[in-house]
Design a protein that fits this description.
Length: about 450
Amino acid sequence: MRLADNEALALALSHAGRVIPIFILDSNLLNSQKNSQKRVAFLFAGLRELNEDLQARGSRLIVRSGQPAEILDRIMHETDASAIYAEEDYSPYARERDQRIAAGLPLYLTGSVAIRPPNTILKQDGTPYTVFTPFSRAWLSSPLPRAAQLIPAPQRLPDPGAVNSEPIPAEPRLLPDNPFPSGEKEATRRLRSFVDNLIENYDDTRNRVDLAGTSRLSPYLRFGMISPRQTAIAALEAKTRFEAGNKGSFAWLNELIWRDFYIHILYHFPHVSRTSFRENLRDIPWRNDPAEFKAWCAGQTGYPIVDAAMRQLATSGWIHNRARMIAASFLVKDLLIDWRWGEQWFMQNLVDGDPAANNGGWQWTAGTGTDAAPYFRIFNPVTQGKKFDPQGAYIRQWVPELAAVDTRYIHEPWTMTPIEQETAGLRIGRNYPRPIVDHAIAREQTLAAYQTAKALHP
């Protein structure tokens, strides 16, 4: 969903005088139980922006809805097109879809949703990496992307001719206060702003949920409104430019390498989309209490940092990565609820919901994935809050009933006396819930459950 550094567009233009830009609203994805209305609104807004950019260059976007293979077969017959060009994607669904299309139509896949596509970073024996650190070493030892490789957006594009297009759906629409304006221009602006103003201190601020210390580019990467190669090159150039900021630039590049890593894992081990990567942790005796899951989804657990994260998700469709880890850890290791419940809830709400990154993050937190946190690492939601939201600003923003609570108590408001609660306009158990579990007790229950699973698969 961009014109700059679009390898599929560039290849099509080099092979033909006439190019028809088409986007298919895939009914399989739009009707999926993991679909998000916020994500669809972002997509539709992005399509409108893309159509405007194409029209400014003499072209326009053709939109069709239905099954991709059927739509492409139909439009090739309508237009006498000779080939289909698209960027390569690697989720299990995307691979199956593209194989089905390629079985009957001339499909050329080029470029990649990853900086380094799967099968380009392998061990010496040809097998995939399953641990991040050696993967990142191999990633960094390969020739690094350079600015000279970037493909500029074409100044003019050929008129696609009399090809019928469906209107881009009017609903759902982005809310006026949506924190993520859609489109390639906004993605480019954000990248420049981040590199110019924040990347130098990124390593120091990236875990602070109360600070605007991250790029917030994930929705744009998710929809290809900016190429992953563009972001990697920006990080590498910043590393050179900011001598004192090398640490921050490298830390951000490292996050981009993590993104690649999870894409590679899903490609080589597609079963992780359904079950744990670690076989010995596939039979954890989850509690899976529906009422507790509902409280977690609603941001009503009684643990302020967790509730702030879940309410931010519900309102904006995005959560700071540290807050994601805290909320995920609480669901899995305090409530002992199957990580797949949380993975699906995130996909149903996130603007940047990506199958590989979302699955990788959840399995990391649950301790069930490839390069996962040890199962016995269990975040304490109180200490995590104190460390990464020290003054409680993030909590006060998203949990307004705690706005007047003194900083001493903001992370554990249940410790206030009745008089202190009254002074803060708060009544624990009435307008803010008591903690739904005791963290210390829950921790022991979780350790026992994981040990039980490991005993089943010695």
